[in-house]
Write a structure and sequence with these properties.
Helix 12 (256-265) runs antiparallel to helix 13, helix 13 (271-279) crosses helix 16 (320-332) and helix 17 (341-368) crosses helix 18 (377-393). A hairpin with a 5-residue loop joins strand 12 (289-290) and strand 13 (296-297). Strands 3-4-5-2-1-8-9 form a 7-stranded mixed beta sheet. Strands 6-7 form a two-stranded antiparallel ribbon. It has a two-stranded parallel ribbon with strand order 10-11. The termini are far apart. 51% of the residues lie in helices and 10% in strands. The chain is of the alpha+beta class. The chain binds adenosine-5'-triphosphate and magnesium ion (MG). Magnesium ion is lined by residues 26-27, 52.
């Protein structure tokens, strides 16, 4: 079994030496067991060892504070959490606890400490998250989490309806664990996720957003989404018209929903890219028209997708930089790939290198989610990318900071105020369009003469 990190061992040892019980618990135990299992099965992509190691203990918070003295910080005393500084970073230690009745599908009324590890494990969401591991490698697993992990099941601890009614965020956490770990939802858990989805409306948008981003970046995100469009519709009802929407066009073999999730599955797990892939065609159902030969068209759908996606991202309080990038990717997804140096330099000027590469990745994925006969477009994307690589290697100029003159040079020529900025923008356009070389003398001469 993967080793417990030194800092965590030290914390477990100190608690035990003071006469308390102490265990690693939750995600770190799950991911450790899973890494071993996948290694045994010869998986090509072993699960990474866990980053956060949570510790649970029979010691009351004040007892934990007493064990660690100055190294302990009371970071969440109300919930029984103390953070201890170690040479390897902070370790969170939480007292065994029971959650009282749930008030609003979010928060327990009260938190009660207990001396029973089993009671603490029973309050946890899924069996695979309800295991504890000791210093000596003993596993406490009262709900069969290890067997579920071995067989690939995601299952609630206890009655799924009750658990989702206590805290509706667990529904989305469940989808996230399926998406990231590739677990299959056990039938009752799966059905209860859909049944209780409306309760997600009571969950803070920020908490939904955090889980959703992890879900979208999971290796099995497509499968998790395809399984639960209804859950997603609880906070993003805009997705439902995509489901089953026949595109009536030979370019497409999938309905809009499946096209979107296949596109998503063909992108690398970069949050903005995954999000753009999922939402790039969300404006299609509302822009659908049929021509006289019975072929479907979606004129203006990129703009319609941007408008819908903007509202959706704002509703979940996605950070504004994130939102803007996703919207630019969606706005650009249906434009032709630039095939000339000038075209690529223009795109670079507007998007920058990082975002242009994301756009190419989105276009690749969008194309791969279309009918096979059109996959030849991958070659056009290859050509665009080759031009991009060459221009960057040649240090092509596409931004003001790369221009061979700056504001001071223009002020020295007598320009003032906004005229300086305007002249710089003009020079950059001329350089990007290949009408002027990016050379100081030539640029200054152009300004003097115009
Ligand atoms: P990650 O890899 O994202 O850290 P994790 O399982 O460790 O996954 P955390 O949010 O760090 O998730 O929570 C730690 C543990 O606390 C979980 O493994 C689970 O046992 C418990 N837990 C967290 N959130 C809930 C919840 N909403 N309801 C019940 N138990 C929860
Ligand atoms: Mg964790």
């Amino acid at each position: 079994m993967a080793a417990i990190p030194e800092g965590v061992r030290e914390v477990l040892e100190a608690l035990e030496a003071a006469g308390h019980e102490a265990w690693c618990v939750g995600g770190c135990v799950r991911d450790t067991l899973l890494a071993d299992l996948r290694m045994l099965n010869g998986a090509r992509s072993p699960v990474l060892p866990p980053e956060d190691w949570d510790v649970t203990t029979s010691a009351l918070p004040e007892e934990t504070m007493a064990v660690f003295g100055e190294r302990a910080l009371p970071t969440g005393l109300k919930h029984g959490t103390v953070t201890v500084r170690t040479a390897e970073g902070g370790v969170e230690i939480t007292t065994y606890r029971l959650d009282g009745a749930y008030r609003d599908h979010r928060h327990p009324e009260s938190v009660t400490f207990t001396r029973s590890l089993e009671e603490d494990l029973a309050r946890r969401d899924f069996t695979v998250n309800a295991m504890a591991l000791s210093l000596r490698g003993e596993l406490r697993d009262p709900f069969g989490g290890r067997a579920d992990l071995e067989e690939g099941w995601l299952r609630c601890v206890g009655d799924p309806d009750r658990r989702f009614q206590e805290d509706a965020l667990r529904i989305l956490r469940g989808m996230r664990f399926s998406a990231v770990l590739g677990l299959d939802e056990e039938d009752e858990t799966e059905r209860a996720m859909d049944r209780n989805r409306e309760l997600l409306r009571e969950i803070a948008p920020e908490r939904i957003w955090t889980e959703l981003v992890k879900l979208l970046c999971g290796r099995y995100a497509k499968e998790a989404l395809d399984n639960h469009p209804l859950v997603i519709s609880a906070f993003w009802p805009e997705v439902l018209p995509m489901v089953g929407f026949d595109q009536r066009n030979i370019h497409h073999c999938c309905d809009v929903w499946n096209h979107s999730t296949v596109a998503l599955a063909n992108t690398p797990p970069i949050p903005e890219l995954r999000c753009a892939a999922f939402l790039h065609d969300i404006g299609k159902p509302s822009t659908f028209t049929l021509d006289e030969s019975g072929v479907g068209h979606f004129y203006g759908h990129a703009k319609a997708s941007v408008d819908l996606a903007e509202g959706m991202l704002r509703r979940l309080r996605a950070p504004s930089e994130f939102r803007k990038r996703v919207l630019r990717l969606i706005a650009w997804h249906d434009r032709d790939i630039p095939r000339t140096d000038k075209g690529v330099r223009r795109a670079l000027r507007l998007l920058g290198e990082e975002e242009l590469r994301l756009l190419l990745a989105l276009k690749r994925a969008d194309n791969l989610a279309q009918a096979f006969a059109y996959h030849g477009r991958q070659l056009e994307i290859d050509r665009g990318e080759a031009i991009l690589d060459r221009l960057l290697a040649e240090d092509a100029c596409f931004s003001l900071k790369q221009l061979a003159v700056n504001g001071n040079d223009l002020t020295a020529l007598g320009l003032r105020g906004p005229a300086v900025g305007r002249a710089l923008e003009t020079l950059l356009s001329k350089v990007v369009d290949g009408e002027l070389p990016n050379q100081r003398a030539a640029l200054l001469e152009f300004v003097t003469e115009s």
